[in-house]
């Protein structure tokens, strides 16, 4: 028709209805609707939008884990063996293993943390939906607040239980990877301890490390597939409690530090650092007990009785390496949450 401007959309395009301009061309076209063509989303873009949480969690995990892995390596060494100080551990590692020693065993956690984070965040999101369906009929629709809305009384319970479910579930996946990582990180220390005191800085061994896959293969050969789950009971307790507190602290901090326009980059980085810091401090003795137990497993033959070590929550030994661990977890989680929220925003902006 004269004066009617209609644009046809290509197949598969996302179109938007808009009112046509009134007047012009002799006054025709009043009230007509034109369809403005928009860009067709690619397969990868559609995938990213559908699995936004999983994509953001996996990418952010790779970045944050690689950056902070040397601190995790030092933390594990200090938990499992005695060093004079943090710098003593750093200098001995540099002398005996070189710079690559700080990233020894990093392949397993890069894979495991990426997988664990992705599964954990997916389970956490689904658990919140399920839990809200249970709590709201009992306590009312206003008992739980959605993101970026005022705080409600049941929010802490909502976050804590959802986080505990996610933490308990991911232990099944994480335990084999973490046990293999620990084996790779301390294998040189175990070899040195058989020949000379580990705190002797003059001893430099030519021991050839096995590496991640060889360590896992050796564990399976010597102890069977279930050997990868050594220390599972302590790992389960640590991850269930730790993940529950982790999400609770982050969600609370995000609401606490948010402005009227929502949580900005500083609020997200601060909340991320604090949630990792606070939750890790509280479960750190359990993590130390797990590292010591798994070290005992590795240093004893299969079937040999392990030494009985009473768990003392406030024992100074259980907090060995806490300082470096606090620095590591603060950096990891600040980087992780900042990257995670940034990626989610980028995915949301795809149109």
From TrEMBL:
Record's keyword terms, sorted: Membrane, Mitochondrion, Mitochondrion inner membrane, Repeat, Transmembrane, Transmembrane helix, Transport
Q: InterPro entries attached here?
A: MCP_dom_sf, MCP_transmembrane, Mitochondrial_Carrier
Q: What is its main location?
A: mitochondrion
Query: Which residue ranges traverse the bilayer?
Result: 157-177
GO terms assigned for molecular function: transmembrane transporter activity
The stretches annotated as Solcar repeats are 48-130, 154-256
Q: Which GO terms describe its cellular component?
A: mitochondrial membrane
Localization per Swiss-Prot or TrEMBL: Mitochondrion membrane
Specify the domain of life of the species encoding this protein.
Answer: Eukaryota
Residues forming coiled coils: none
Question: What are the boundaries of the region Disordered?
Answer: 1-31
Q: How does it sit in the membrane?
A: Multi-pass membrane protein
Q: Which Pfam families has this protein been placed in? A: Mito_carr
User: What family does this chain come from, according to its entry?
Assistant: Belongs to the mitochondrial carrier (TC 2.A.29) family.
Q: What is this protein called?
A: (Perigord truffle) hypothetical protein
Q: Which organism is it from?
A: Tuber melanosporum (strain Mel28)
């Amino acid at each position: 028709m004269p004066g009617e401007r209609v644009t046809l959309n290509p197949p598969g395009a996302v179109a938007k209805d808009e009112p046509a301009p009134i007047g012009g061309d002799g006054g025709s076209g009043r009230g007509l609707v034109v369809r403005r063509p928009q860009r067709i989303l690619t397969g990868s873009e559609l995938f990213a939008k559908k699995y936004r949480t999983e994509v953001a969690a996996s990418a952010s995990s790779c970045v944050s884990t690689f950056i902070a892995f040397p601190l995790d390596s030092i933390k594990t060494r200090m938990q499992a063996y005695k060093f004079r100080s943090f710098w003593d551990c750093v200098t001995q590692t540099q002398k005996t293993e070189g710079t690559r020693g700080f990233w020894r065993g990093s392949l397993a956690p890069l894979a495991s943390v990426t997988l664990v984070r992705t599964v954990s965040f997916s389970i956490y999101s689904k658990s919140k939906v399920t839990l809200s369906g249970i709590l709201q009929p009992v306590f009312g629709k206003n008992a739980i607040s959605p993101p970026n809305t005022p705080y409600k009384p049941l929010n802490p319970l909502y976050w804590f239980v959802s986080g505990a479910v996610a933490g308990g579930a991911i232990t099944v996946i994480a335990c084999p990877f973490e046990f293999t990582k620990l084996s790779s990180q301390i294998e040189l220390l175990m070899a040195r301890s058989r020949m000379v005191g580990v705190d002797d800085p003059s001893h430099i061994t030519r021991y050839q490390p096995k590496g991640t896959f060889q360590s896992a293969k050796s564990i399976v050969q010597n102890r069977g597939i279930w050997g990868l789950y050594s220390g599972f009971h302590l790992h389960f307790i640590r991850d269930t409690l730790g993940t529950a507190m982790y999400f609770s602290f982050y969600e609370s901090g995000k609401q606490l530090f948010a402005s009227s326009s929502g949580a900005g980059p500083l609020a997200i980085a601060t909340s991320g650092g604090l949630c990792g810091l606070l939750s890790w401090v509280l479960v750190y003795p359990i993590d130390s007990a797990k590292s010591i137990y798994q070290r005992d497993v590795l240093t004893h033959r299969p079937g040999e009785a392990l030494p009985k070590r009473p768990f003392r929550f406030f024992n100074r030994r259980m907090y060995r390496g806490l300082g470096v661990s606090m620095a590591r977890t603060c950096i990891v989680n600040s980087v992780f949450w900042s990257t995670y929220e940034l990626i989610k925003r980028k995915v949301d902006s795809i149109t």
